Amino acid sequence: MPQKQTRKQSISMTRGARKRDEDSGTDVGEGTDDWSQSKATVRPPDQLELTDAELKEEFTRILTANNPHAPQNIVRYSFKEGTYKLIGFVNQMAVHFSQVGNLIPKDSDEGRRQHYRDELAAGSQESAKVVTSDTEILEEDEEPKEAETEAGSQTDVPAAAEAEAETTEKVIEEEFMAPVQPKERKLTNQFNFSERASQTFNNPLRDRECQMEPPPRTNFSATANQWEIYDAYVDELEKLEKTKEKEKTKTPVAKKTEKMTMRKLTSMESQSDDITKVSQAAKIVERMVNQNTYDDVAQDFKYYEDAADEYRDQEGTLLPLWKFQNDKAKRLAVTALCWNPKYKDLFAVGHGSYDFMKQSRGMLLLYSMKNPSFPEYIFSSESGIMCLDMHVDHPYLVVVGYYDGNVAIYNLKKPHSQPSFRSTSKSGKHTDPVWQVKWQKDDMDNNLNFFSVSSDGRIVSWTLIKSELVHIDVIKLKVEGSTTEIPEGLQLHTVGCGTAFDFHKEIDYMFLVGTEEGKIYKCSKSYSSQFLDTYEAHNMAVDTVLWNPYHTKVFMSCSSDWTVKIWDHTVKSPMFIYDLNSAVGDVAWAPYSSTVFAAVTTDGKAHVFDLAVNKYEAICNQPVVAKKKNKITHVQFNPIHPIIIVGDDRGHVTCLKLSPNLRKMPKEKKGQEVQKGPAVEIAKLDKLLNLVREVKTKT
Amino acid sequence: MTEVEETLKRIQSHKGVIGTMVVNAEGIPIRTTLDNSTTVQYAGLLHQLTMKAKSTVRDIDPQNDMTFLRIRSKKHEIMVAPDKEYLLIVIQNPCE
């Protein structure tokens, strides 16, 4: 109902408005007639008919400041509560017009700045005023000049400008200043300020890049195995030890020099991508290749035992194995053989010449059984080598005696072709060929010591003191009974020529010397003038004397008078005598038995004797070298393998294997253990000797 | 000539030796007496085999090391001697 009423009111209001509009419209025309003509109120047909009471009803109308366009209820989603919430107060403000003004408060920063600027401008104006008063006069003077300059050609202007540079500048400045002063500070607004911009020519941009060579790259890959880790640890250890040693031993100065040398070394090593690093591998491969070629020989050496020995009664044979020869030593005879005490497959061969007329150079070759085609070490010398010996404790030291009487020591660790130490004529070399050299035990000062015997009758002891050979004459061999009286009352001794000697294994000072006259002297190192004993051994020169390796009393000698004799040093006459039908070059005791020995003759035969088996004959009698004219010069037993090496005068060394019969060990008796060892050997020989002695005493 | 060169020469002239070659640590042949293709083939294959064999020996006992490797076949024998940086390979016909 109230809605209807309001509608009614609005209608009436609008009618009223229209009326007024009409009235206003007709006001001008019919204004005078307004009071006279009262228009009857025309009632529209659809006007509400209200009662008086209703007409008098008062309706209060409130004028509020509420914005009719503003929403009456606004609901907002509250995230906090998760629901829509009614906003209590709705903003009723309606903005009809807004404009941003440019008034700034005086106290603000911008206001203060502007104020300051104004002051500055005012100040400059004042100073400019002062200057202008001075320049006014100048101006007046300059004006006609300027007029002239301006009128003049352009070329004059720069000249004039140069001449009056300062003044004109000032004037120009003041001219600028002068018009500015009276004017107030210009306000730049869109009406009196135009900004002119011009674009300069932008230089084209150019990219400049620089690229370096990429660092060299390599691929690295490795595996982590147990052994790689082990290797790394070992290397670390070595480095640590090296640094420790360096710290201990070297001084700082030395360190610097060391670093220099180290640098040089490393640079050298990196440069030489050479093949010398393959030396070790090459050696191994050479041996492998040889092993293949001489495979059957190697197999024989290791495993072959002549089965025919069982049927052969008690005789044995020598099986030829390898043959060692070298082109360079072809014409030279083998003059010495020696097995290395440490490496049982290495042996030394000395080459020279026995012929007095044909003396030339000499060679020292060391062969290994593992490589029969080429020697391990080669040394050459000017004079023929007559004898050699290897040190037991230092197996790399080889002492050598020359035909010209010198002695020398070769060090195998240093690969030079020259000997490390050498005797000279000043240091007491022999005047005749040195026939035998032998190492002795180190003397009290731990110096190396060896003996040499020569045809000049001197037995000399050499000592290596601080890299020099010092000699001491131990004995001068004199031929007994040959002292002759010279008119001056001096006694002239005929010098005996020593050709061989051997030292006793247990009694250190005792040794035997064989001479060219065929005598054997038993000497002592301590007595230099007298012999302990003399044996009338042979009719010709004694080639070898050797003590028995087991029995301390027994020794053996051989000579060019075709005989081999076995002695007991307490008895003046030999125990056993063997006649071999040819000059005996060399004899050697076997290292495994006290009753076995081998002898080689110049007719190319090797004889092996076993006294326990056959006292009178050789159990092996075999030609060893191919050609008959070839003389065998030396023989040596290998300390552990059942082989012997035989050297001939053509420069060849043949290696032979002993058949089982030649290596007989005492047979086991039932129920008793086999006794092995030196005692057994000694007993064995003793038995034999006793037999012989009994026979002799009987006869 | 250095000693090593002489040794290699001797090996090559030894009875039954067909060829020798020196291979570096990466399997690249440095020196050979055979033709190129054969050398390359031998070098590549044997290098791998040698490394494997060496690794095997050392895995079992790191203090041990392989001294050489021999492969005997119907026709010939291949011998490989390893070194720290190089490998020396020799092919020999042992039956001649």
UniProtKB/TrEMBL annotation, chain A:
Chain intervals with Polar residues compositional bias: 124-135
Listed Gene3D superfamilies:
YVTN repeat-like/Quinoprotein amine dehydrogenase
Q: Acidic residues compositional bias: what residue ranges?
A: 136-145
Question: Whereabouts are the WD repeats?
Answer: 535-568
Highest taxon listed in the record's lineage: Eukaryota
Positions of the UniProt region annotated as Disordered:
1-47, 119-164
Q: Localized where? A: Cytoplasm, Cytoskeleton, Cilium axoneme
Its principal location?
A: cytoplasm
Q: Keyword set for this entry?
A: Cell projection, Cytoplasm, Cytoskeleton, Dynein, Microtubule, Motor protein, Repeat, WD repeat
Family of the protein in this entry: Belongs to the dynein intermediate chain family.
Official protein name in the record: Dynein intermediate chain 1, axonemal
Which organism was this protein described from? Mesocricetus auratus (Golden hamster)
UniProtKB/TrEMBL annotation, chain B:
Where is this protein localized, as stated in its record? Cytoplasm, Cytoskeleton
Q: Which UniProt keywords apply?
A: Cytoplasm, Cytoskeleton, Dynein, Microtubule, Motor protein, Transport
The Roadblock/LAMTOR2 domain is annotated at 4-92
One of the entry's Gene Ontology molecular-function terms is: dynein intermediate chain binding
Report the GO terms under cellular component: cytoplasm; cytoplasmic dynein complex; microtubule
Q: How does it assemble?
A: Homodimer. The cytoplasmic dynein 1 complex consists of two catalytic heavy chains (HCs) and a number of non-catalytic subunits presented by intermediate chains (ICs), light intermediate chains (LICs) and light chains (LCs); the composition seems to vary in respect to the IC, LIC and LC composition. The heavy chain homodimer serves as a scaffold for the probable homodimeric assembly of the respective non-catalytic subunits. The ICs and LICs bind directly to the HC dimer and the LCs assemble on the IC dimer.
- Protein name in UniProt: Dynein light chain roadblock
Q: Which organism is it from?
A: Mesocricetus auratus
